[in-house]
Structures are given as structure tokens and as C-alpha cells.
């Protein structure tokens, strides 16, 4: 039985990243039938015990943990909560009396690891593009400098636009998009950004 986090992961892969059911099945190991159910259901099915096990310690802080993890989805990876940090905050801010292992176990149940293998994605023409910044050292007038690489790639045609800037400020981001759209001769319907603050 899939957990709620797994359902959300599958829905994000399909609706946000545009992956096909077949692609998600290959990457996650779930059957196509399970994936279709995750994509079409409005209610997340949960496994039900005949008799619920009491968890008085964790139940008092479940909503707090869920809210922190939800906020982490918008935060840069290095600023997200670890299970240890969650435990420490609960002790400091809420007087939590349970053990750290209880929190670690609960957080582990909520989190879903992303697929480890990369498989090429299938996208409809003109629908999606992916954008990210990179960094490279170059020799400029005999001096080594670090420049920022603006990279926008169409996911269907694999056509790539690359331009270098001296910074990643908003002006560079906007100018790079204008230049990319002129180069491509079109504007993708959806652009996927990778935790980009300037966007």
C-alpha cells in the first residue's frame, strides 16, 4: 500500500515534471496500475489496522513535524531539517519528552528517496524546458575568472541555449531568458527550475 508521500511523489513526477506512467514505473518499480491509481484518486488510501496502536508521544507533535517538512520543500537543500534538528527543535521549543529514535523513525516514514538511476524522459513537443545555472572557470585576458553559465534546454528536441554571465542576479536571469527565446524561436509552455531563488 502506498503512503501519502509516495502518492505525492508520483503525482509530482507526472504532473510537474511531465513523466509518462511507463517512465515512472521504470524509475520507481511501482506497477502501472498503482501509478494510474495514484494519479486519478482524490483520496489517499491508508493501511488500516484492526486496532490502532497508541502513539501518544509522537501524536502530540505530528502536525508540527509535517508543517516543518512542508516548509522545507521551498527551502534550499542545505537549509532543510534533518531528523536530528527536528528532534532538537521539538525539545527546545515544545518540551518534547520522547526519544530521538522515535522522531527519526517517523521522519523516515514520511520521506521518499528520489530515484537513483537516470532514465531519459519523454515529453511532448514545445511543452517543457529545463533551466539551471552552472559555474565554470575560464581564462579571460590572461586571467582566470569564474563565470556563471545560463543553460536552458528543451526537453523534447534536446536543443540547448547556453550563455555566460558574471553573476546570477535577476537581470542576468531575465536577459538570458529573452536571448534563449529569440535563439529558439519560441517560448516553452512550462519551464522547470531547480530551487532557483532569483526565479
Walk me through this protein's architecture.
The mean pLDDT is 81. The chain has helices at 4-16, 21-28, 32-40, 56-59, 62-72, 83-94, 100-110, 170-184; strands at residues 128-140, 143-154, 160-165, 190-193. It is of the alpha+beta class and 199 residues long. Helix 6 crosses helix 7 (100-110). The longest helix is centred in the C-terminal third of the chain and has 15 residues, at 170-184. A hairpin with a 5-residue loop joins strand 2 (143-154) and strand 3. It has a four-stranded mixed β-sheet. Helices cover 42% and strands 18% of the residues. It contains eight helices and four strands, in the order H-H-H-H-H-H-H-E-E-E-H-E. The chain folds into three domains: 1-48; 49-121, no CATH class; 128-193. It is flat and about 65 Å long. The two termini are 37 Å apart.
Q: What is the first-to-last residue Cα distance? A: 37 Å
Tell me the strand order in the biggest sheet. Answer: 3-2-1-4
Q: Compute the number of strand runs.
A: 4
Largest beta-sheet details: 4 strands, mixed
Mean of all residue-level pLDDT scores? 81
Overall shape: flat
**Parts with pLDDT < 50 across at least 5 consecutive residues:** none
Residue share in β-strands: 15-25%
Q: What is the helix fraction of residues, given as a range?
A: 40-55%
Quaternary structure state of the chains depicted: single chain
Order of helices and strands: HHHHHHHEEEHE
Q: What would you report as the Rg, rounded to the nearest angstrom?
A: 22 Å
Count of helical stretches: 8
Amino acid at each position: 500500500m502506498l503512503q501519502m508521500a509516495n502518492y505525492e511523489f508520483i503525482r509530482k513526477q507526472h504532473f510537474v515534471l511531465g513523466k509518462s506512467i511507463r517512465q515512472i514505473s521504470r524509475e520507481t518499480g511501482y506497477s502501472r496500475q498503482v501509478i494510474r491509481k495514484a494519479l486519478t484518486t482524490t483520496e489517499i488510501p491508508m493501511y488500516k489496522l484492526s486496532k490502532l496502536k497508541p502513539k501518544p508521544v509522537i501524536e502530540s507533535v505530528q502536525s508540527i513535524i509535517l508543517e516543518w517538512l512542508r516548509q522545507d520543500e521551498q527551502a534550499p537543500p542545505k537549509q532543510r531539517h534533518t531528523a536530528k534538528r527536528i528532534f532538537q527543535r521539538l525539545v527546545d521549543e515544545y518540551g518534547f519528552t520522547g526519544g530521538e529514535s522515535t522522531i527519526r523513525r517517523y521522519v523516515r516514514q514520511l520521506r521518499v528517496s528520489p530515484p537513483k538511476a537516470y532514465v531519459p524522459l519523454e515529453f511532448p513537443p514545445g511543452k517543457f524546458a529545463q533551466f539551471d545555472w552552472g559555474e565554470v572557470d575560464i581564462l579571460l585576458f590572461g586571467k582566470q575568472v569564474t563565470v556563471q553559465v545560463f543553460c536552458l534546454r528543451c526537453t523534447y528536441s534536446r536543443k540547448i541555449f547556453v550563455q555566460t554571465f558574471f553573476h546570477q542576479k535577476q537581470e542576468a536571469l531575465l536577459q538570458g531568458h529573452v536571448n534563449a527565446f529569440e535563439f529558439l524561436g519560441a517560448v516553452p509552455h512550462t519551464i522547470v527550475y531547480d530551487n532557483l531563488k532569483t526565479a
